[in-house]
């Protein structure tokens, strides 16, 4: 028995419900295998924020730093202005723990695939998770917006950046801006990870998604670095513009394997990808720091429209738990969760989003029962 210390952050809305189901499944795994789990629940999310004003505290960070992995539900609350919880908790976690890879598999879980052609696919999106338009490098200028200058400060594990902007618009208007930044160091480690990932999977090529025909500097540099890395690893490199990629994912998903995508486009394409595999309730993800603490979560949010009613599909959270197990050195146990998900889909033991009539906890229990049956 190897005991893993897991921080569990259910968060808000359906995060609480799907993590409860996912934990029942992980506990079942620990009963029948050498995976031992020491779980500590951490109260981070909108309730605490509304009570105390705290988002992610230094104490939270030092507690989480001592763990082997983090199992995260979702954050988001209609009572809090957009961006506060998202930037203050989730994006801050990804940045503080330097989880620079966001792995988001898109797998053809038949019969959930809503496409006309029944071709199997298994796309592994590797989303860069620390830079691009997600850095909070923003500001305003103009007569009613701070005058003729703006100071931008961003802080990352790799660097601190200060940008001073002197700006004056000819028409005296007010402006807001959000800068997308890429550093050579971060793109290089991302490209290196993607290439090694493709080789490990047996993919002969990496597809790089961008918009280098419009955002020429950032994605031009990214193309150059990926070109060097792909050559170094002897891989083919395919470039796809993000608009064409959105279309190709519908028309020919089976032609993609390892797909590297910058942060913002990766967010969008993986919700599309989730829908290709049955909906947001089917998308698991791992925020990975290969040398540090990684965090596993469903890709969906807190879903206030269905929260508290047992309607949330817990499979995305279970697939995130699968990735946690694989990351922690338990590939056979991870595989078991994949098989368990296949089993509940085949048996029609699903929530309403997949056409079933079970509740979140009933699906969780069905998956856990399958696992216990593997003893
Ligand atoms: P959402 O992912 O919460 O929900 C989008 C739609 O999908 C909703 O109709 C919801 O009911 C449905 N859905 C999502 N997950 C489901 C599941 N497991 N089973 C069944 N149906 C499911 O996105 P949103 O509504 O745009 O955002 C709600 C809040 O969540 C916002 O505050 C947003 O910022 C936040 N958010 C957080 C995360 C995260 O924590 N990782 C991710 C996305 C959005
Ligand atoms: C996701 C979410 C987050 C993102 C938000 C909530 C910050 O949409 O995990 O996909 O954009 O990465
Ligand atoms: Mn998203």
Provide an overview of this structure.
Strands 2-1-3-14-13-4-5-12-10-11 form a 10-stranded mixed β-sheet, sandwiched between helices. A hairpin with a 4-residue loop joins β7 (149-155) and β8 (160-166). The model has no long low-confidence stretch (mean pLDDT 97). α7 runs parallel beside α8 and α10 crosses α11. It has 375 residues and is of the alpha/beta class. Helices cover 40% and strands 23% of the residues. It has 2 domains: 1-103 and 281-375, Isopropylmalate Dehydrogenase (3-Layer(aba) Sandwich), CATH 3.40.718; 114-131 and 182-276, Phosphotransferase system, sorbose subfamily IIB component (Fructose Permease, 3-Layer(aba) Sandwich), CATH 3.40.35.10. The structure holds nicotinamide-adenine-dinucleotide, 3-isopropylmalic acid and manganese (II) ion. Residues 14, 18, 74-76, 86, 90, 280-281, 297, 300-306, 312-313, 316, 353 line the site of nicotinamide-adenine-dinucleotide.
Write the layout of secondary structure elements.
Blueprint: E1 2-11, H1 14-32, E2 35-41, H2 46-52, H3 58-65, E3 69-74, H4 84-96, E4 101-107, E5 122-128, E6 138-141, E7 149-155, E8 160-166, E9 175-178, H5 184-201, E10 205-210, H6 216-233, E11 236-241, H7 242-251, E12 258-261, H8 263-276, E13 284-288, E14 294-298, H9 315-327, H10 331-346, H11 360-372
Parallel strand pairs: 1-2, 1-3, 3-14, 5-12, 10-11, 10-12
Antiparallel strand pairs: 4-5, 4-13, 6-9, 7-8, 13-14
Helix pairs in contact: 1-9, 1-11, 5-6, 7-8, 9-10, 10-11
This protein binds nicotinamide-adenine-dinucleotide (NAD), 3-isopropylmalic acid and manganese (II) ion (MN).
């Amino acid at each position: 028995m190897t005991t893993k210390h897991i921080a569990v952050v259910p968060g808000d809305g359906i995060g609480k419900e799907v993590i409860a189901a996912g934990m029942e499944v992980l506990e079942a795994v620990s009963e029948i295998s050498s995976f031992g789990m020491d779980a500590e629940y951490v109260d981070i999310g909108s309730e605490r924020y509304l009570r105390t004003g705290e988002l992610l505290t230094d104490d939270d960070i030092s507690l989480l730093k001592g763990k082997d992995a983090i199992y995260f539900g979702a954050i988001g609350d209609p009572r809090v202005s957009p961006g506060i919880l998202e930037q203050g908790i989730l994006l801050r976690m990804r940045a503080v723990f330097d989880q620079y890879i966001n792995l988001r598999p898109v797998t053809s879980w038949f019969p959930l695939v809503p496409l006309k052609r029944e071709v199997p696919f298994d796309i592994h999106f590797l989303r860069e998770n620390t830079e691009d338009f997600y850095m909070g490098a923003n500001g305003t200028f103009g007569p009613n917006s701070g005058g003729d200058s703006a100071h931008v400060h961003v802080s990352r594990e790799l660097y601190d950046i200060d940008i001073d902007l002197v700006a004056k618009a000819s028409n005296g208007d007010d402006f807001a801006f959000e800068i997308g930044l890429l550093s050579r160091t971060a793109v290089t480690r991302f490209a290196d990870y993607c290439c090694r990932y493709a080789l490990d999977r047996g993919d002969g090529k990496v597809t790089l998604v961008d918009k280098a025909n419009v955002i020429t500097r950032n994605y031009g540099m990214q193309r150059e670095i990926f070109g060097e890395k792909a050559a170094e690893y002897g891989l083919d490199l395919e470039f796809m513009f993000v608009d064409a990629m959105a279309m190709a994912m519908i028309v020919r998903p089976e032609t993609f394997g390892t797909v590297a995508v910058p942060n913002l486009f990766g967010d969008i394409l993986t919700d599309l990808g989730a829908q290709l595999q049955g909906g947001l309730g089917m998308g698991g993800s791992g925020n990975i720091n290969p040398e540090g603490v990684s965090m596993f979560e469903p890709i969906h949010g807190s879903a206030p429209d269905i929260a508290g009613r047992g309607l949330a599909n817990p499979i995305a959270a279970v697939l995130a738990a699968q990735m946690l197990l694989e990351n922690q050195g338990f590939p056979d146990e991870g595989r078991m969760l994949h098989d368990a998900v296949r089993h509940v889909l085949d048996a029609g033991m699903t929530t309403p989003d997949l056409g079933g009539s079970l509740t979140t906890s009933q699906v969780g229990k069905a998956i856990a029962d399958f696992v216990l049956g593997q003893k």
